Amino acid sequence: MSGKTHRGPGGRRRRHDNRDMILMALSDSAQTLPEIKEHFYALPRRFGIFSPIYRMTAEDEQPFEQELAHDLDRLISEGQVLREKDRFALTTLGRDQANNRLKGIRRAVALASGLIRPEAVSRITVVVHLALAAIKLPAAILSGSAGLLNDSIDTLLDGFSSILVYFGVRFKKERAANVFLVILMLVTGGLTLFESTRRLFIPHQPDADLTAFLAVLVSALVCLFLGLYQRYAGLQNGSLTLITQSVDSRNHVLVAVGVTAGLIAALLRFPLLDAIVGVLVAALILRSGIEQAVGLIRSWESGEADLSGYSEKFFRKYREFRKTQLRDWMLYLVDSRRAVTGAGLLEEAARALAFEKFPVLREIGTGDRDQNEEQIAQAADDLFAKGWLTEENGSLRLSPAGRRRLWMQTLPVRRTMSRSLVYHPSQTNNNPKFEAGNGEK
Questions:
Q1: Which of 5, 128, 306, 432 has the most CB atoms less than 10 A away?
Q2: Residue 439 is assigned to a structural domain of this protein
Q3: What is the pLDDT of residues 377-423, one digit of tens each?
Q4: Are residues 129 and 181 in the same domain?
Q5: Does any domain span residue 438?
Q6: Are residues 139 and 110 in the same domain?
Q7: Please, are residues 245 and 181 in contact by the beta-carbon 8 Å criterion?
Q8: How does pLDDT run across 211-264, given as a tens digit for each residue?
């Protein structure tokens, strides 16, 4: 571990060992300390964290520079790095170590890619459902909760249905597996609606204890993350079957809400609450089943599954986050005079998103460069359209509205909460003299 420390959020002192990252940063060529630092700052930008609103203060950055310098000294003493004036380069030993670290990242990326393959997702789904059934069945028997017992049996049946889905995916019978899932979803919703409606007229007093609450909580959390995993894998693979499974997992979260309502009703001695929530949950399950059935029929008619609606819902928040981060960062560039012209602003933003020059990001994936350029152009247009940015005699300025926007995003509370997220301008910004047209002394 590094002998130096620097402060994290809330003033806590954290200790880091940056040697592996430094070795990988130097794997292309000899670099200066500011250039090495840029590898650390490029990583959050790759995932949309541009962060003028979270930028490091001098109090934070100086200890980080000292920590990097200390780690470089250690690498030099270990014979992995040598110093040439103000530049650092790898020795043969250091290059071997850097290549090993990059191979490790490559293997991790390959493993992650394997985990979103349809067959892998189906296998994991089978294991999760059977494991949840193994947790919930004993809890239901011990607590005597009828709702939890029904949910446990449903989870067990889903485990067996997931096995059928797995074979459907493996033997290229996804459409048949999807039909089975949709039918099962409709049947589950219908039976839940029938049972809940019956309880409106014939009240049932469920039992409740801590074991039942914990089982339901675990089930809800696991199904929530399983559904997100299935949805992402389904979108990446264009698989309507995985999308349907993700909807089914979401329905299990809704069922968990219904079971929780029943347990709360038991504590409050108010059984009608269990029935009312049950009807609502059943209606939501039936609605999702009908939506999936409609999507399935349309895919038959068109010959291919239309997943655009699912993709839009799933990635919308993340796209909005990236767009907001990029716009605010570009405002900061203009406010700090790191970019003074329209062309300079676009150039500085494009340079910040040129991830192919970073070895670690090349292994992780640099993203679509054309898409990045389109996002930059769109962000610039938005800044002018919103009235946050103006241009006078070829020079960019923040309007009063733009200054208010930037001020709101740099409130001390937000900066303190987010100080662990790193911002740093690109390499030209480390120089006291900026390129002509892109900055000033």
A1: 128
A2: no
A3: 999 999 999 999 998 888 999 999 998 888 877 654 444 444 444 44
A4: yes
A5: no
A6: no
A7: yes
A8: 777 888 888 899 899 988 988 888 888 887 888 888 888 877 877 877 777 777
The b-or-e profile of 295-324 (16+ CB within 10 A means b, else e) is bbeebeeeeebebeebbeebeeeeeeebeb
Would you tell me the crossing angle of helices 118-143 and 210-237 to the nearest 10 degrees?
A: 170
| Residue that the structure tokens 């797995």 belong to | 166
Examine the fold and report which residue of 64, 97, 114 is the final residue of a domain before the chain moves on. 114
Which stretches of the chain score pLDDT less than 50? 1-14, 52-54, 412-441
Phi, psi values for residue 308, rounded to 5°: -60, -40
End-to-end CA distance of the chain: 38
Angle, CA 57 vertex, CA 51 and CA 58 arms, to 5°: 140
Q: What contacts 411, CB < 8 A, 6 or more positions away?
A: none
Q: What's the alpha-carbon Rg for the chain, to the nearest Å?
A: 28
Distance of CA 78 to the CA centre of its chain: 37
**The predicted structure's pLDDT at residue 301:** 59
Give 63-66 contacts, CB < 8 A, sequence gap 24+.
63/4, 63/5, 63/6, 63/7, 64/6, 64/37, 65/33, 65/37, 66/4, 66/6
Number of domains into which the chain is organized = 3
Same domain, 87 and 209: no
What is the spatial distance between Cα 43 and Cα 15, in angstroms, rounded to a whole number? 19
Domain that holds residue 96: 5-114
For tokens 């995916």, the residue is 169
Give domain status of residue 362, yes or no: yes
Residues 6+ apart with CB under 8 A from 243: 230, 231, 234, 235, 305, 307, 310
Q: Are residues 396 and 389 in contact, defined by beta-carbon separation less than 8 angstroms?
A: yes
The whole-number pLDDT of residue 426 equals 40
Residue 257, domain CATH: 1.20.1510.10
To which residue do tokens 């460069």 refer? 369
**Residue at 435 is within a domain:** no
Query: Which residue has tokens 């003028």?
Result: 52
Same domain, 405 and 416: yes
| pLDDT the model gives residue 175 | 74
d(CA 165, CA 234): 13
Query: How far is Cα 441 from Cα 439, in angstroms, rounded to an integer?
Result: 7
